[in-house]
Amino acid sequence: MKVIDIIDKAKSTVFSFELLPPLKGNDTGRMYQTIESLTDFDPKYINITTHRDELEFKEMEDGTIVKRTVRKRPGTVAIAADIQHKYGIPVVPHILCGGFTKSETEHVLIDLNFLGIENVLALRGDGVKNQHVFKPDPNGHANANELVGQIKDLQKGKYLEPDLKNNTPLDFCIGVAGYPEKHFESPNLDMDLQYLKQKVDTGADYIVTQMFFDNQIYYDFVKKCRDIGITVPIIPGIKPINLKNQLTVLPKIFSIDLPGELANELAKCKNNEEAKRVGTEWAIFQSKDLVANNAPSLHIYTYGIGDNVSEIIKAAF
Ligand code: FAD
Percent of the chain scored above 70 by pLDDT? Predict the structure, then answer.
């Protein structure tokens, strides 16, 4: 089922969560434990992240430096298909511009269609580590809007090869990312919102937000979107803090602010256990308020941890 149909049919807020594929070398056991700890709470769909190749520089015993390309978390398509077929829960694999050619993207979308997957989250991705600016693949897309355009073309049966015959349309429901505190590269929120509108005008069905810790920032963002004519559902992203160092790591990585009250409570924590308690309580507080204010869905960033998420969902719904 498509995410947009799930949201349209729902009478109240639904719940979904985001998972990372296992690190290369690991099996899927832990990931399935996380899913199984949450299936009782009726998640309506599950997002699966995608990770591009990274460059690594390794010093060898003779002192030479070897450059190598690694993909730390392969397997998104296979895992997405397995989850959907095993649990009967629709999945939303993430599709990236960065590190992929248009042709590779087309092949992934064909595979997803063959596997019965109807949803994707279309993202640009970040530059490779140590690269200050995002560089698209020479035969890839420069931004998520172009990627949405390719997916929409396939919906009309328009593949990359112009002379292809028997063009089966590939019909995906498309989500895109939005940034209530603006994307870190954007000169200002208004400009970022114009590019967000461009993705929606090209064909995105809904928006999922970057994590935020002050609901007022989300409500203001939704209002600004509506003011410029963005009418699609805007799904709030909630990240339950579970480590003490996230007090400084999350603002650095995601260019977001932590409200004073939350930051002060985390700063007082003596260990990760205490930080996880503070983070869980804060996520419950945020989630209850979002449900009360009829957010279409809660998108919980689990990063592979299920116990705090089940507590949040139990309390919020
Ligand atoms: P875009 O929409 O392309 O925007 C990127 C920047 O370019 C913005 O500053 C925007 O204002 C600007 N811009 C957009 N269009 C134009 C244009 N036409 N001309 C000029 N400037 C433009 N990353 C991963 O690697 N894997 C994941 O699985 C993943 N999942 C995510 C899930 C969610 C819900 C979110 C919010 C983010 C996720 N990310 C993931 C991170 C994301 O890839 C990065 O934040 C990335 O830097 C931006 O992606 P985007 O799709 O928002 O890009």
Answer: 100
